[in-house]
Design goal:
By secondary structure, this protein is α/β, with parallel strands linked by helices. Helix content is 40%, strand content 16%. It has 14 helices and 11 strands. It has helices at 13-22, 34-46, 60-69, 85-88, 93-98, 115-124, 152-164, 176-183, 187-190, 222-231, 240-250, 254-274, 296-304, 338-349; strands spanning 53-57, 76-81, 102-106, 134-141, 169-173, 198-202, 212-216, 280-281, 289-295, 310-311, 325-331. Strands 1-7-6-5-4-2-3 form a 7-stranded mixed beta sheet, sandwiched between helices. The protein has a 4-stranded antiparallel beta sheet with strand order 8-9-11-10. Strand 4 (134-141), helix 7 and strand 5 form a beta-alpha-beta unit. The chain is globular, with a radius of gyration of 21 Å.
């Protein structure tokens, strides 16, 4: 009953086996290993983007922050949702790696920006010339921090607004696999065909040991990324162990199968919680995260039984009348089982 996050799960056995298999003999460092050649070819084929530049880093923070750094100047604005991951969970890394770019926060229900809200924010920025930060770039989180999914048409609508102002677009895809599994869209339709310039393609939250790909659809930005990755301390010497993870992740669409598993268990969990008297959803369950509110007594039983998850927001207390509802964030991983879900539901049902 471990629903704290999808990055708390074990590494998928296929990934561990690939890392072990790579641990023989010698390989050139810094991304010059032969496995990386296969990774690059596989990702270009998957995204139907034969000219795309492909790089690997060890963390989602590095993938996002370095991506932002090649898309905007230090005096630029990064337009993102108020609850975007780069705003809530990166400890200022985008600002640090860009040299000072400012996050400009855009509102919208369920952590999704609307074209109108984005257009208003962009139009308001830079109105006093040299006295303001300038319009820089747009960043979308898909799957969002509230577990919702931008469909390709929604991505395109937001990109159209950005492109109307001449701004590039980054997509934080730490849970990109879950968005694709949920929507059924092609990776190309969700990204460059909709107007996305750079994608952080996540692996760590979906069964990998620790690897993220940065896919740059405009290869003109590739050299700058290489320099920033090295300067920022994110160029791995024993790179083959990143490459081995990513190749295994792509093999046989493992990335998509693992995401489909976590989405399916989240759907089961969401439906089960809604069947509890007094329970409601805080946000729609569209991928692998469930944001739900249910009576405090159910929370107390679940915690006593060993369930791990976060109350949402964090500052809530289990103390108080048992019938009073509390909201929670529960995230399913590739390894969450139906038995985990049923055990949890039995506790909160009472």
């Amino acid at each position: 009953m471990f629903f704290a996050s999808d990055n708390t799960s074990a590494t998928a056995p296929e990934i561990m086996a690939a890392v072990a298999a790579a641990n023989t003999g010698y390989a050139m460092p810094y991304g010059n290993d032969p496995i990386m050649d296969q990774v690059r070819a596989r990702l270009r084929a998957l995204f139907e983007a034969p000219e795309a530049a492909v790089y690997l880093v060890g963390t989602g923070t590095a993938a996002n922050a370095l991506s932002c750094a090649i898309l905007t100047q230090p005096w630029g604005a990064i337009f993102c949702h108020r609850n975007a991951h780069i705003e809530e969970d990166e400890c200022g890394a985008p600002e640090f790696y860009t040299g000072g770019a400012k996050l400009v926060l855009v509102d919208g229900a369920h952590a999704k920006m609307t074209p109108a809200a984005l257009a208003q924010a962009i139009a308001f920025t830079g109105r006093s010339g040299v006295h303001n930060v300038q319009r820089g770039m747009v960043s979308l989180t898909n799957t969002t921090e509230h577990g919702t999914v931008y469909e390709p048409a929604e991505v395109r609508a937001l990109c159209d607004v950005a492109k109307g102002y001449g701004l590039p677009v980054h997509m934080d895809g730490a849970r990109f696999a879950n968005a694709i599994a949920a929507s059924g869209a092609s990776p190309a339709d969700m990204t460059w065909r909709a107007g996305v310039d750079v994608l952080s393609f996540g692996g760590t939250k979906n069964g990998c040991l620790g690897v993220e790909a940065v896919i740059i659809f405009d290869p003109a930005k590739a050299w700058e990324f290489e320099l920033r990755r090295k300067r920022g301390g994110h160029l791995f010497s024993k790179h083959r162990f990143l490459s081995a993870q990513m190749l295994a992740y792509l093999e046989g669409d493992l990335w998509l199968r693992l995401a489909a598993q976590s989405n399916a268990t989240a759907a089961r969990l969401s439906a089960g919680i809604l069947a509890v008297p007094g329970a409601t959803l805080v946000h729609p369950t569209e991928a692998n995260a469930v944001f739900a509110s249910f009576p405090r007594e159910g929370h107390r039983r679940a915690h006593a039984g060993g369930a791990a998850y976060y109350l949402w927001p964090f500052d809530q207390s289990l103390e108080g009348p048992g019938e009073v509802p509390l909201a929670a964030r529960l995230v399913c991983s590739w390894s969450t089982t139906e038995a985990d879900v049923e055990a949890f539901l039995n506790f909160i049902r009472g």
